[in-house]
Amino acid sequence: MNQQLTILFPNYISVHIKREDLIHPFVSGNKFRKLKYNLLQAKEENQKTLLTFGGAFSNHIAAVAFAGKEKGFKTIGVIRGDELGSKISGNPTLLFAQNCGMQLEFISREEYRLKNEISFLENLKQKFGSFYIIPEGGTNVLAVKGCKEILTHRDAKFDYICCPVGTGGTISGIINSVLPHQKVLGFPALKGDFLKTEIRNFAQNENWELITDYHFGGYGKVNNELIGFINQFYKDNQIPLDPIYTGKMVFGVMDLIHKNYFPAHSKILLIHTGGIQGIQGMNIKLRNKQLPTINVNV
Hints:
It is built from eleven helices and ten strands. It has helices at about 30-45, 60-70, 90-100, 110, 120-130, 140-145, 170-175, 195-200, 225-235, 245-260, 280-290; strands spanning about 1-5, 15-20, 50-55, 75-80, 105, 130-135, 160-165, 185-190, 210, 265-270. It is globular, with a radius of gyration of 19 Å. Helix 1 packs across helix 2 and helix 1 crosses helix 6 (about 140-145). The strands form two sheets. Strands 1-2-10-7-8-9 form a six-stranded mixed sheet. Strands 5-4-3-6 form a four-stranded parallel sheet. The chain is about 35% helix and about 15% strand.
């Protein structure tokens, strides 16, 4: 569903937001798209267990846990940070995953850096037996195939497609499905230029660009300005934004509109990639730092 924002933008610019956050109550947005063909492949390979990786408040961990439960898979989550093992009850994401039946394996950050090494994966197989592996964040060829289905023929009228960028899978699928007159703008949630290489591993077109000015300090970093923007956006539009991905992207697009980045009469489509489950965990962190919280009804 594409929802038009009622804000009056300068230069006759119109903005719609694709509500991918609404396609599933627990596996929303790009996580639904990324898992679709991976789950089918796991079934095809007669695998009974899904194993994946993530951090303390990972949308991906929550999505795999619920999707596995829904589709009849055992799930294992390898979690970055061995200190989190004693803190599950105070972590909404990990508690949700555990309640969905996911077995949580906590490892140190040093070990976590080895997660793609053959010897590390062999040790996991010795411990847990056979499993279907889904990368951290869910990005692989099958995930890109799923994200290619985000855009439909109804989106042909848009000039710009804007989306948040984490591991690069979602934007790659979108890049592979846009029409020649459309340009894709990606807003990374992480610092650094390395994502361009990751995206080029999957993207088949060249009509895209990364806007790297709106990460707010890096992955998981927020400030009062971003929190205030998310709260005001919800008040004006009744659309919740997560602070890790979509909130930063929408903030960036609004800022670029007022800086005259977009030509007059531009039609802009924003991709809401979900991640709303992470708000609860972020608010715990904000309260601990005595900072303003995100006030949305979800």
